[in-house]
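User: Fold both of these, please.

Assistant: Here is the first one.
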Amino acid sequence: MTSAVIDQSSDASPDKVSASQWVKHLRLLGLAVAVIITLFWKDGLAMLDAWWNVSTYNHCLLIAPIIFWLVLQRRDELVKITPAIWAPGLLWIGAASVGWLLGEAAGVSFARQLGLVMMLQGVVITLLGPKVVRGLIFPLFYSFFLVPFGEEFVPFLQTITAKMSMLFLGWADIPAFIDGVFISTPTGYFEVAEACSGVKFLIAMIAYGALVSNLCFQNWQRRTLFMVAAVAVPIIANGIRAFGTIYIAHHTTTDFATGFDHIFYGWFFFAFVLVLVMAVGWPFFDRKIDEPMIDGDAIERAALRPSKLSSKAALITAALIIATPVIWTSALSAGSSPVPEKIALPNVTGWEQVDYRPRFDWRPRFDGANHQLLGRYRQVSSGAEVDLAIAVYDRQEDGREIVGYGQGAFDPGTDWSWSRNLAAPLSGKAVQITAPGPVVRDVQSFYRVGNILTGSGSAVKLETLKAKLLGGNQQAVAILISAENLDEEGPAIAMTEFRNALGPLDKLADEMAGLR
């Protein structure tokens, strides 16, 4: 009788141990996640703000519920797997912390937010172990789509859309002329604006394609082909959309074409594209509807090298790795980097300051700058006019970056639009922007950070990173030389002569920052 009781207890033991293990490890995971969210709440809040307020990232609001649903799909099989501490997961946390540190130092929000998501992934890997991670591999890494990204591709997609439109217009025998992202036809003047770049649908389609590839395919070749279609078809469809708008305007009116674009293309066209991609892929789906997403028994049987790290040691080590970049950046940011209380536009030999009266109001955007100046100069000998804008920062931090999307030569929230890149001057960059009229303006941008003068946003980020990580001058200065394009050669010549008359721009920038 006693022996029978012992046998029954022995049979029930594994299930009880497994359940207790899951409770223990999930509690540890909850604690770790709470610590990370507490330390990096600003980055988490910035992500939520982007999801809610930036239409390009509205699809991210669905990613978290999808991840939750993907985990629920695997629940019955996951409970067959025993969680365990896995020390190599700390390496992923370390990589995430370094990424966050670099993003914080360089003022790159994408890197900080990516680092936050990777930290959360890292504690899952460390505290649940390789077997559980194998079962959660797709939902775990699908969480990368929580990070807002894609705005940096807007100019490229605008250009591609404009060129495809020209190709289709040629096939339709509609005469057209292209200048950057602006297309002229006998019936109108059209801009492939940022909203027409197709970036919103492309990013959402990539996330959707990844989900379908996992749920509906097992063969990797089919998954790859479906993902290629998920990327290529939206880009081509957006080119057709832009062409269609111009084609309709050519045969009706611009107002009718614009309204038709917003209603038909905005609501129906891309829904049709989505259905089309699914319809093409449907016959090739090779995963059965009732087939489990993972095999918990097979995963549990896999050999596992036990980790010698205790749960307490894993938590402490992870906490130290996560907290180190926060402590480091906080210590460095405590230093001061003052700029003058007042600055003024410089006197330029051969040029006189005149009232700033542009044909279409233009003001560069530099959020959070300590000082911003904008003035117009007229060349005494020729009468040519050039505008000079200067922005000075005592330091760069979140929301106060000297370069970034929406910062600099034109504010995407205004009527100005990027048209094309121009030949870059020495240590600078040049773009052409356009406002209604059309009014065309050339802008040359120069940035002074640390010991470099550059027009490269990447170089600015790297120099900012260097100064923040190793210490040094935190001040940053932007100098923009601009002119309205009244003829083909005038702006370039006048801007070059004005830049030469200003003297060394690095010295001017240092004077504005109070470093000389």
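And the second sequence with its predicted structure:
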Amino acid sequence: MKLSSIFFSGVLFLAIPSLQAQQLPYKNSKLPTEKRVQDLLGRMTKEEKVGQLSKLLGWEMYEKGAKGVGVSAKLKKAVQDQHIGLLWATLRADPWTQKTLLNGLSPVEAARATNAIQRYMLDSTRLGIPLLLSEEAPHGHMAIGATVFPTAIGQASTWNPVLIEQMASTIAKETYAVGGKNGYGPVLDLARDPRWSRTEETYGEDAYLIGQMGRAMVKGFQGDVIGKEDKIIGTLKHFVAYAVPEGGHNGEGVSVGERAMRHHYLYPFEQAVRAGAGSVMTAYNSIDGIPCSANPWLLKDVLRKDWGFNGFVVSDLLSISGLNGGHATASTAAEGASQSIHAGLDVDLSGTGYGANLLEAVNSGLVETSVLDTAVARVLRMKFNLGLFDRPFVDEKLVAKKVATVENVAIARKAAQESIVLLKNEGDLLPLKKTVKRITVVGPNADNAYNQLGDYTAPQADGKVKTVLAGIRAAVGKGTQIDYVKGCAIRDTLNSNIEDAVAAAQLSDVVVVVLGGSSARDFKTTYQATGAANVDINAVSDMESGEGFDRVSLDMMGHQLQLLQALEKTGKPIVLVTIMGRPLNLNWAAAHIPAIVNAWYPGQEGGLAIADVLFGDYNPAGRMPISVPRSVGQLPVHYNHNKPKHHDYVEMSAKPLYAFGHGLSYSKFEYSNLVVDVKESADDFACTVSFDVENKGLLNGDEVAQLYVVDEVSSVVTAIKQLKRFERKSIGAGKRERVSFQLTKEDLKLWAVDNRWKTEKGKFKLLIGSGSDDVRLEGVLELKKDYL
């Protein structure tokens, strides 16, 4: 057998551990995990234990040359000097990492790189502990060649956890195929200030919807049991309340009371933890003056004691260093390390927060050996459960069968289709007829591949991403002439050609205008040490969203509104398509443009999916997971604010332009025959809410039925309404379907004045409909007793 085939197949390395198992119990796969953990822990030096908690940036840990892919000198030094236990973003490629299609790794090369890294760990270290490789994977593995799905705000717009679980399973398979065992995601931040730069990474403004999406992602990533083939563990981000910083400033302080924390911000994380999430990441921000990376109440009392979390907690990049930096709660780096590990933070993403600082803290008595051992055991336990000691390598021959397959691309298109929200369709302008003679396609996002992908996306090969222009061209026949004029950029105002766009529009039968925002990074952008982009007011890139790009206004930037207004003056039918990462100001468009389609960042198949909707090949059913404000002066404007109801402003309505749950269809649905059945018992109750939904239209379509609850009288102030159940259901034209939801005490509980969960007796109003502001049926649930 050739030497290379020995290495690549892993045959040699499957044999060696079996020979050593008699001497080294931790290498014996037949022993229980806990015995293996304790055996290995007992063999480790203090320095090796500290190193096991360091997760370094991984993209400099391999070398790619004419002879192939291997480990770098930097990896060898990090292993020898620091005894590192984990790597992050080894396969990441983007302008921050300076990895391109040329110097980055193809999927097969990625598998070779991770195999080489694990081979080095087994061959060249004293104990042969494999590395746990963590990868960014919120809407696809952030690596060259991987499939790119809609960003999280688009995923949430599907209101389809079953599809999101399928998508997450696909992401896991692609990540696992090249050696990743941990995917960063889902992001479970509750987004209630769209000025904040990372809104696109969230599932929106509602805790219940986020919780359902988070559970789906975890189940898709991990499966039923951690350690299965083609599965990875998820890392829940960012624990907690990261998305509501004061002034929308990324990473800054948050003032949230415990009741709001428990009712809204903690709830999605609890759902994902109870689904079995393997890892949780702390947030950069502080809450009520305590940094999340040094908060024992969050990491010990809530996460582990209350919820039973048994995975490991990892810092966000450099957040431990922030304790004796921006937060200034520690006077030295060693004190910061001590604060974090005592609070229950196990792993340092950076290698500089713990490392030498943690070793100093241990040596000086700031950190007890037992505390260190607890954190190390959590990491080792996860490595054993993932099978890293027994199956450290991946099969390079299987990569092409798992990454970017036809099946994976089809799921990306379906996710994009289901994420699209039809906001307005005056006069039934949509769907367009494919027999239309001439279409003008205009706008900065009409034919820009990177603008429709969102942040945390790797470089893409030419032709892989289907733009809106490409989608329209593919949808219509040769008898339709397609004219394209960019018109303007997202931000740059020096190279607009609005006149050309207007001239083309005047010759057309219909105009499709594609505007919005962009999170596309370029190689001229500068970055902070955390990876967040630096804002440059003089930059001419399109980037106006994505990590680090907080905004003071939600107006469309550059000459976009001027372009839209000039096109509207032509009198031609106009369809506005928005591709963006946060809700933007659509007031003028809503008042003047007959049809508006929102696609968020729809991923690599987004252009085809948008065309499917525009021409009626797909009947849209997406719903807004976040409200679209009329003004930043309204913020926050989420639908489920606490009582009392808002009154209007002097200048405008207090209601959002488009509310949470809003979305139209090419079909019309009617609701009827509501039945509420309540059965109370000693310890709980069971309430069944059932009703009919009928498709009165001419097309088959999906309807998203939503159930909201109003606690009419409660001992503490509660929301004016709260989503409790939803279901996306396909209903044939002229058909009627019965929808049923079940509620128990868990769904109606509140954090009572005596600081415990309680479901209180009394009346609860049930609101059923197609959106938070589109209620079709009302019922009442009455409880005769309290439930604890």
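Residues 1-21 have pLDDT under 50 and may be disordered.
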